[in-house]
Amino acid sequence: MLHIFRFLAFVLVVGFAALAVSGPSFAQRAQGYVQEVSGNVTGQVGTGQPAKVEKGQTLVNNTTITTAAQSFAVLKFEDGTAVLLKENTSFQVQNYTYNPKAPENANAIFNLVRGGLRMITGLVTSRNRDALKVATPLATIGIRGTEFIAELVNPLYIQVINGVISITNGAGTVLFSVGQTAVVTSSTTLGGLIPMNQVPPGVFQMPNVPLTPVPTTVPPGTPVGAGVLGGAPGTAALVGAAAVAGVAAASENKATTVHHD
């Protein structure tokens, strides 16, 4: 009987350890949250199944937020960085790390997959101006403590509201400053200045929502996508299920074979 209990304990440990390692993890400390949400907004962590996003939910790394038509979301991060996502936008928090006691080690990498955003940075770039980047399929936007609007409609349009940004791709890096508007037509073409009258109608039209770059403490809340797994069960889910099945079989089948010492 002692051997049976040892076996069951081992199966449980292996199963839950696999779940912790292989599946989407919410153990990491959330450093961002959904400050405002309107309309149909969904979120997912990694390859997890999209789930409806609610105000107050927290953001962990590898979270993607997607807004539908006539919808928007405002995301806020601990250093004060605020992001407004307009309708029909997909935005990923790839990696965000900020410690007010060591701001020189801050790092924020976001991905604008499609659509448009308005961003105003907080303290993340206070000690390292290259700490925050927004990647897009056409170029990476480097933020040096500023406010800007970017919209990816192939091409990529960027308007600098305050400060300076850099645009980098396979053709090189170009800097743009307050009041300037830029366009990037391909991943191998340098970003260039463009007059506002050449910007397509609807581009840069954002919801009238105030953004404040004030450092904040992330309120306690359910992580976006918590407990939601998409598609067929992965290795972790299968191992976990096997662990539970093993416990049930061992408890019901008294003829389970064990080796004696």
Number of helices: 2
User: What would CATH call the architecture of the largest domain?
Assistant: Sandwich
**Total domain modules:** 2
Radius of gyration: 23 Å
- Give average pLDDT, whole number: 82
Helical residues, percent:
10-25%
> How many strands?
17
Cα(first) to Cα(last) distance is 12 Å
**Beta-strand share of residues:** 35-45%
Low-pLDDT parts are 7-24, 229-261
Principal-axes shape call: globular
Chain-wise SSE layout:
Blueprint lengths: L1 H21 L9 E7 L2 E5 L5 E2 L5 E2 L3 E5 L4 E6 L4 E4 L3 E9 L9 E14 L11 E4 L4 E4 L3 E6 L3 E7 L1 E6 L2 E6 L3 E4 L7 E2 L41 H18 L9
Key features?
disordered C terminus, 17 strands, 17-stranded mixed beta sheet, 261 residues, 36% strand, Jelly Rolls, 2 domains, single chain
Structural summary, described in words:
- Residues 7-24 and 229-261 have low confidence and may be disordered.
- The chain has two domains: 1-23 and 234-261; 24-233, Jelly Rolls, CATH 2.60.120.1440.
- α1 runs antiparallel to α2 (235-252).
- Helices cover 15% and strands 36% of the residues.
- It has a 17-stranded mixed β-sheet that branches.
- The chain is α+β, with helices and mostly antiparallel strands and 261 residues long.
- The chain is built from two helices and 17 strands.
- It is globular and about 45 Å long.
